[in-house]
Amino acid sequence: MRQNKILEILYPYIPAKVLGEYLGLTASQVYNRTYNRGIKKDPKTKKAINRSLILNAGKYTRYSKGHVPFNKGTKCPNLLLTNAAATMFKKGNKPFNTREANATSIRTDSSGRKYHYTKISDGVWVLTHRLTWEQANGPIPAKHIVRFIDGNTMNLELSNLECIPMNQNMTKNTIQRFPKDLQEVMKLKSKLNKTINNGKKRHE
To answer: Are residues 112 and 170 in the same domain?
Structure first.
């Protein structure tokens, strides 16, 4: 009974092996007893233990830092090269599923929004809407982004793209949180401020 009470209190927070050594049980016995009694690991403790297991996986069979391979500096025998030549990739070889230049793909970012990508060379894919803008207007200036006017990331029409400063884009995104009638007032206020500022500059 005492062991069971200790298991109930400590197992959620202590690794089974450590707890078993304290109680004179094997890790398997600890797992069996806690499973039968419905005792589970604390989520945070379980996450920490799993992370430790991942980091230490294969630790004792890895090459240590500074290890020198026994065959360092040894050239492959000509006979071996000759025999293996038939199965080697030839220079310029490409996998069967290699996409050609100008191929397109749709990918989803971390926020769940989908974007078109275009391949411009092997291993180099760029956002299609940025490429479309640059082909029509030249390089995108520093600290600027190309945004979708209607908010639809699948609408790649040039008329739906605009290049604006990042800070302006931040303002636009902030405005979207407000009701539409208030958004219109904020936009008019912004235009009015720009007109006033431009007028001041002309008279300075």
So the answer is: yes
